Structure formats: structure tokens, C-alpha cells
Hints:
It is a single chain. By secondary structure, the protein is an alpha/beta fold. Helix content is 40%, strand content 19%. It has a 5-stranded mixed beta sheet, with helices on both faces. Helix 2 crosses helix 3. The longest helix has 22 residues, at 57-78. Mean pLDDT is 84; it is low at 120-125.
Amino acid sequence: MTDLPKIERLTSRPQFLAAAKGVSQARGAVVVQRLDRRDGLPHIGVGFTATRKVGGAVVRNRAKRRLRETARALIPLHGQPGSDYVLIARMGTAGREWDRLLDDVKSALTRLATPPGAASDPRSEPQAEIKAARETPAQDDGPA
């Protein structure tokens, strides 16, 4: 069995602000931010947040508890060592079906693990085609 990376909690405001400067993915009921720390340390940092827009204290606490459980299950498997992740609750996080919430977080984590412009990034292919089309002069066959 492979060694799973150590998970550490993000606890200070500067850690959360730094993660906000990284890349992010919104999926369903969650937004996941990722910062590649580039410090050479193999652990994964994880933080959770929910704004008052999500709901009152009871709803926010429920949403964060659910995000903590999804992170406990998925970050060791899909997280990148040397990265910090912040999971941000959205309006539907507290009431989202469990399987769908897991799918949302897993989808965001796998997308964040793929470098931008990689072949598996579907957004890179149409952009390349558009750029190539712009650079290729139109062929004029003459009068028809």
C-alpha cells in the first residue's frame, strides 16, 4: 500500500489568503482552492470556510462538518503533496446529497491536480483550434 501524505489543518488567516491566490474550481455545492506551496514539504494543508451567505451558524457548522468528512475521505487520495487546499461551502452544501457532495469535491480535486493546458483539459483543445484558425490565412478559390 502506498504511503498517504500527512494532512495538516490550515488555521491562520494568512494561510487562507495565500490559498486564495492559487487556482480554484467551483463544482456544485463547493469551491476548492489550491495553492502549490513550493516549499518542498510533502504534507497537504486543508482549511474549511463558510460565509454567512450560506446560512446561520447552525447551517454553516453543518456545511463545514460535511466538508471536513469529504476532505478526510478524498484529500489523501486525490490531493497533491506540497499543496494547501481550502474548501469553501456554497449555498447547497449543508443539504446536498452525500454522494453528490463527494462527487463535487472529487471532481474539483482531480481538475486542480491537472496542470493548465494539459491534453486532458477540454478547454485547451478548442482554444488551440481557434488560435490555429486565426493564424491560417483563408484560402480563396476564386470566383465560383
